[in-house]
Amino acid sequence: MAESNPTQPAGIDREAVRAAARNLEDGPVTAGYKGDRTAVIKMLNEALATELVCVLRYKRHYYTVSGLQNGPIKAEFLEHATEEQEHADWLAERIVQLNGQPDFNPATLLDRSHAEYDGSEDVQSMIRANLIAERVAIESYRQMIERIGDSDPTTRHLLIKIMAVEEEHADDMRDLLE
Ligand SMILES: [Fe+2]
Ligand SMILES: [Fe+2]
Known about the structure:
By secondary structure, the protein is mostly helical.
């Protein structure tokens, strides 16, 4: 039976850890990375496109809603736009960490987005369109989280964090529905 080595923490194979850390060109991605990197990057790029479309939709709603009584709704639209932009930034950052290319191409943005843009002019139609988009986002994040499983804990954690905000957004929009 092998003697236990007091300098080595239980359960961690230090030689394997050092071997997996050797390829410096891969930045944060070590040889032990268990995810399907191509598939994860593709999913993250679809999520990025979705978030960018959501930024544009909320921004348009924010700028076009008028009327004194709509002030709080306008503020909610702006807050959501800002948070969707933050999600887009987190996703782009993660794609780069995984040695992928974040796709910001405006020509194909809508095709690659899960959620839709909205050109409606009355405020209740805007709220409804946003609620639909938020529910689409929630469901797409739920599927991504399920697919990633335990293969990439950092990406999984990020997607869970974003999904929780989308659930708040959906709740906010539902509260504004008449
Ligand atoms: Fe978002
Ligand atoms: Fe959202």
